[in-house]
Amino acid sequence: MKSLTIFVLLVCMSAHAGWLKDRIIARMSKTPAPELSATVKVLKVGDTTRYYTIHIPKNYDPKKATPLVLAFHGGGGDMSIQANDKYYGLISKSEQAGFIAVFPNGHSKFRSGKLATWNAGKCCGSARDERSDDVGFIRSLVETLTKDYTIDRKRIYAIGMSNGGMMSYRLACELSDVITGIAAVAGTDNTIECAPKNPVSILHIHARDDDHVMFEGGAGKKAFKDRSQITEFVSVPSTVAKWVKHNGCKSPAKKLSTFCELYSDCLGGVSVELCVTPDGKHSWPGGTKPRGGAGSSALNANDVIWDFFSSLR
Asked: pLDDT tens, 240-296?
């Protein structure tokens, strides 16, 4: 009798999950496309319509070359989440540091652009499965931005959270003629092929207790309901070792602080930095998780990222 009761409960739970999923899909299907504005833009890439959000700092001077930061949202998110200062604080950092911040929207099955993912190679979701040309999108986006604004072509950076960090790694592999450096938070290098034409500076930030993209590799057992949408993630040590080799770094890691270490003496003057927080799980240090809770307070990701990029000048 007990076994039958458990079986019935499991069936009911499965049915409820299916009903909830169908309801979400139905609601998303009715949600309109993003409304264009001074900050929300559209870009046609071949037959595909892509969206992005842009923030121009108040001190922007079209007579001066300005750094550009492309900020990629996590899997299942969208540009509005990554651009939300409550969660990531990147608008405030743009104002403080003076860079143009652009938040591209990933590949989505819905015209609203919600529940989007990035094709970062082995991950993630429909972007990977439908072979979304996200690299082509970003190349076209940068070309558009450099026509519309006075961008410092030597200071174009990619940063991202989780699947967005993975996308940043793919750009380092395939757009090294465009991207000067990347900063990946809670997302490792899961590219299928990687043969960068030029050295690219790499900053990786990760929590030791990340329960989604595990520090030592693999995907958290309880983090993903549909594991076919992800991959067994590459570990942080393997990711860093890969880029130390790619960049031909000769010097051993040098301790910068309690949480960060730097590999230098690399080709082209680039560097590789790793920052590991003891806590925070799957989050943006110094930020707030969109689903509730705070990121690690061990460091502020935005400050570390901008200090790293500024050191490359």
From this structure: 999 999 999 999 999 999 999 999 999 999 999 999 999 999 999 999 999 888 999
- Which pairing describes strands 40-45 and 48-55: parallel, antiparallel, or unpaired? antiparallel
With beta carbons less than 8 A apart as the criterion, state whether 242 and 312 touch. Answer: no
The mean of the pLDDT values for the chain is 92
SS3 assignment, position 276: strand
HSE, side-chain direction, 13 A CA sphere, residue 181: 23
CA–CA distance, 239 with 151 (Å, rounded to integer): 30
- Helix, strand, coil fractions of the chain, as percent rounded to 5: 30, 20, 45
Cα-only R_g, the chain: 20
The pLDDT of residue 312 is 94
> Which stretches does DSSP call E strand in 198-294?
201-207, 254-255, 260-263, 272-277
Distance CA 198, CA 270 (A): 10
Contact 185, 206 (CB under 8 A): yes
Beta strand 151-161 pairing with 181-185: parallel
Task: Measure the CA–CA gap between 7 and 126, rounded to whole angstroms.
Answer: 32
pTM above 0.90, yes or no: yes
| Cα–Cα dist 278/286, whole Å | 13
Q: Could you read off the pLDDT of 203-218 as tens digits, one per residue?
A: 999 999 999 999 999 9
Phi and psi at residue 259, to the nearest 5° = -115, -10
3-class state of residue 95 by DSSP? helix
